[in-house]
Specification:
Structural class of chain B: alpha/beta
Radius of gyration of chain B: 13 Å
Number of strands of chain A: 0
Order of helices and strands of chain B: EHEHEHEHEH
Largest interface: A-B, 24 and 22 residues
Order of helices and strands of chain A: HHHHHHHHHHHHHHHHHHHH
Helix content of chain B: 40-55%
Strand order of the largest sheet of chain B: 2-1-3-4-5
Distance between the termini of chain A: 89 Å
Oligomer: heterodimer
Distance between the termini of chain B: 12 Å
Number of helices of chain B: 5
Shape of chain B: globular
Strand content of chain A: under 5%
């Protein structure tokens, strides 16, 4: 009997416990939904003001600016995340004014504070926001982010540093990307935003890599070469061409790609020499680079590799010839080689009807 | 007033372009990918389309090709929105039949001016 009563009480307690937990969950959901509805309600009016600030004209902007500066904490909270997401997509005055509003709302202080949080997500948010606001005084905080214990935070810091066109930043970013290859894409994305300001430092590192020849130096050199091509550093052609002589193949390919991206016809001869390289990857990269330059002078060189033993090299040569204007397209049209026919077929498919 | 199609998978940009162009009195049809843009062109026959290049599924470039190959849509002026890193795509975009392009990050005021100019030219 006693055992049965104990079992009954235990069952009742269990059921009651489950009910309480379910009620708590439902209540919590309702409260959150209510808070979100309130946020959306507040947001809709304030967000229009943010959009006016970001896209309006003359007096509209001044009015929106004044309204946002006097926004209540609830109004600020309702749009702050979205405003930080919008800011990097704007440029000119719109960006400047919205940035001023976010600074006036204390965005910089909170972002800096977030970078010391124990949560990786909050640190990412902090780094992202510091990058968006691009305050020179917070540069070192972001540089420290490159050594963060979590990859995702290091990645965010790398991307955020693209807002700082500063040679010292470029050097630290290059060090970090050379030490951790999976940061390469983020490094290049940031360098692309920094632009030509990065070129002198990158060029020096490429020259150093050519002298040092160690593995770490070669990685830095490869990244520097890629970045120089990306930012269009045409005054770096000489050092990039030096990278084609007696260097490891990956390094050589990075220099070839960069020369192709720079697109100067003066590089045609050195790139043409690489079409005889024993490594098909080097030959393919050279053919692609010649295609990017797209000059009629390259037609003869490319025609010679149209029948390369390696199909990828031949295909790259055919595509490159197609980019070399009428003389190259004529070669493709008259050729019976399968890769040339393939390029012709693809071209006619892409052409508007 | 014109009917303008805006296709961008980035909700912030879509909202901003939509807001800016609607304040100029235009009617906006907003979608978030290339396939939806083509469908919206067929359904709403917009006077102009603003297409992002990089969109999930069908890209803006592919959408232009479809638009230009359809006799009913071929005359719609198209402005491409492209990230700076994709500027090489602009050449392809013009080859495919785009009428203008704007690089991101962009100024909504500049976009509005280009839209107005293109609408005036196409009328």
């Amino acid at each position: 009997m006693n055992v049965e009563r104990v079992a009954l009480v235990a069952t009742l307690l269990l059921v009651a416990g489950c009910l309480v937990i379910t009620l708590c969950l439902v209540l919590s959901r309702l409260i959150k939904d209510h808070a979100e509805r309130r946020r959306q309600h507040v947001r809709s009016s304030v967000w229009r003001v943010v959009l006016t600030l970001g896209s309006g004209e003359g007096e509209e902007i001044d009015e929106a600016y004044a309204v946002l500066l006097s926004a209540t904490p609830a109004q600020r909270k309702a749009v702050e995340n979205d405003a930080f997401a919008l800011l990097p997509k704007l440029r000119g005055d719109s960006r400047q004014r919205l940035s001023e509003v976010l600074l006036a709302w204390g965005g910089l202080r909170r972002a800096t504070h977030s970078t010391t949080s124990r949560s990786a997500v909050r640190r990412c948010r902090g780094y992202y926001r510091l990058g968006v606001l691009a305050e020179p005084g917070r540069r070192d905080q972001l540089l420290r982010g490159l050594d963060d214990r979590d990859f995702i935070a290091r990645r965010t810091a790398m991307l955020a540093l693209g807002s700082f066109p500063d040679p010292e930043v470029v050097e630290k970013m290059l060090d970090a990307a050379a030490a951790e290859p999976r940061l390469r894409g983020d490094f290049l994305a940031s360098i692309d935003r920094i632009g030509l300001v990065a070129a002198p430092g990158l060029r020096d590192h490429l020259a150093l890599a050519l002298e040092s020849r160690d593995e770490q130096g070669a990685r830095r050199g490869r990244l520097a070469a890629e970045a120089l091509g990306l930012v269009g550093a045409t005054d770096s052609v000489e050092v990039l061409e030096a990278g084609l002589a007696d260097t490891p193949d990956e390094f050589r390919i990075a220099c070839i790609n960069a020369l192709g991206a720079l697109g100067l016809p003066t590089s045609i001869i050195v790139l043409g020499d690489q079409l005889d390289h024993p490594n098909p990857d080097v030959r393919r990269a050279s053919a692609q680079a010649l295609g990017l330059i797209g000059a009629a002078h390259a037609v003869e060189l490319l025609t010679a590799v149209l029948e390369d033993d390696n199909i990828e090299v031949a295909r790259a040569a055919a595509n490159a010839l197609h980019r070399c204007g009428r003389p190259g397209q004529r070669v493709i049209r008259l050729s019976t080689i399968p890769v040339a026919r393939e390029v012709q077929a693809l071209t006619s498919l892409r052409a508007p009807a | 007033m014109a009917r303008i199609l805006v296709a961008d998978d980035d909700v912030d940009i879509r909202e901003l372009v939509e807001f800016k162009l609607s304040t100029l009195g235009h009617e906006i049809v907003a979608v978030n990918d290339g396939a939806a843009a083509v469908d919206a062109c067929r359904e709403h026959k917009p006077d102009l389309a603003v297409l992002d290049v990089m969109m999930p599924g069908m890209s803006g470039l592919d959408a232009i090709r479809v638009i230009r190959s359809d006799p009913a849509l071929v005359g719609i002026p198209v402005i491409l929105l492209t990230a700076r890193a994709q500027e090489t795509d602009v050449e392809t975009g013009f080859d495919s039949g785009a009428d203008d392009y704007i690089t991101k990050p962009f100024s909504p005021r500049e976009l509005a001016s280009r839209v107005q100019a293109l609408l005036a030219r196409s009328r």
